[in-house]
Amino acid sequence: xxxxxxxxxxxxxxxxxxxxxxxxxxxxxxxxxTETGLLHLFIKHTSASLSxxxxxxxxxxxxxxxxxxxxxxxxSYYIHTYEGSDDMPAHIKASLLGSSLTIPITHGKMNLGTxxxxxxxxxxxxxxSRRIVVTLYS
Length: 138
What we know:
This protein is of the alpha+beta class and about 140 residues long. About 25% of the residues lie in helices and about 35% in strands.
C-alpha cells in the first residue's frame, strides 16, 4: 500500500455551505494516479466542517445553513463568547457535522453518488482560509 498526502488551502468563504468537490479533484490530480483506493479528508479547524450532500440544487445548502443556524445560534447561555457571538455556534456545528470524510476511489476517481458533492461548512461570519489534509491510500 502507498500513501500520498498534501494539505490544500481553500480561499475564504462566506458563512454557509459551499461545494468544494472540484478543489478536492484538483488536489487528486497532483497525486499519483491510483485505480482503487481510499481518499481521506481532514479539516484542520474547529469552526468549519466537511460533509457530503446534494450537489445540484443550491437551495439544499441554504436550507442546511438555516437549519444549523436555528438550532445553534444566539443562545443566551453560551460562555465561550470572547471570540465573537458566532464562535461557540461554529464549534457546535463543526462537532455535529464532523471534521473528516473517507471516500472510495474507483477507476482513479472519487466514487461519489450522482447527486453527491463535498461540502465545506463555513460556520464563522469571517472564517478566513481553511486547510484540508488530503490523504490518498492506494
